[in-house]
Amino acid sequence: MAQFFTIHPENPQTRLIRQAVDIIHQGGIIVYPTDTSYALGCHIGDKGALERMRRIRQVDDKHDFTLACRDLSEISVYAKVDNNQYRILKNSTPGAYTFINRATKQVPKRLLHDKKKTIGIRIPDNRIALALLETLGEPMLTSTLLLPGDEYPLTDPYDMKDVVGNQVDLIIDGGYCGMDETTMIDLGDDFPVVLRQGKGDISVFE
């Protein structure tokens, strides 16, 4: 059964954040809050944790996961970013957006889109998520906690404990954070293309 941490949404307890990161380093899967909904997270390099996340979501190896990053400098390590893309990212992060960019060689091949060699990247506007990423010191592989057959992600950490408590290693109760998707923006071309409209405002890209 998963461990259960209650972490303050405005002032995350350092001790609990460190314990959560230790679980990630040990190959664990966590449930954590973001600025759109609760999400699953694991270490970027852990193949076993990735496969477990796929089983929880019941998706195949074609499903695109996202890298949650702590800042723009970290994004530039894992995604190819030109000057125009940098300006867009700077004006839109942290926030409720997932950006699709061409990946660098730092991204494990198993995480890339087969044909386009792209990766989803985002900087969540949530203090618990950012504290986790800052302590982890590298991106976290992430996916919305949306279970097969459900229209919306799970929102109540105590429900999560009942539903996925035996499939994950840690559930973080960080309070209510919504049930939205991110707005997905493709930055691979000369101008941004909205692939999915979610919580993030698209008017800034028009």
The top level CATH class name: Alpha Beta
> What is the terminal separation in angstroms?
46 Å
What is the average of the pLDDT values? 93
Q: What is the radius of gyration?
A: 16 Å
Task: Give, in spatial order, the strands making up the sheet with the most strands.
Answer: 1-8-2-3-7-4-6-5-9-10
CATH topology: DHBP synthase
Record field, number of beta strands: 10
Task: Characterise this structure.
This protein has 206 residues and is an alpha/beta fold. The chain has a single domain (3-200), classed as DHBP synthase. Helices cover 28% and strands 22% of the residues. The protein is built from 6 helices and 10 strands; from the N terminus they run βαββαβααββαβαβββ. It has helices spanning 14-25, 47-57, 72-78, 83-92, 127-136, 157-164, and strands spanning 3-6, 30-33, 38-43, 66-68, 97-102, 118-122, 140-144, 170-173, 183-186, 193-196. The chain has a 10-stranded mixed beta sheet, sandwiched between helices. Strand 2 and strand 3 (38-43) form a beta hairpin. Helix 1 packs across helix 5 (127-136). The model has no long low-confidence stretch (mean pLDDT 93).
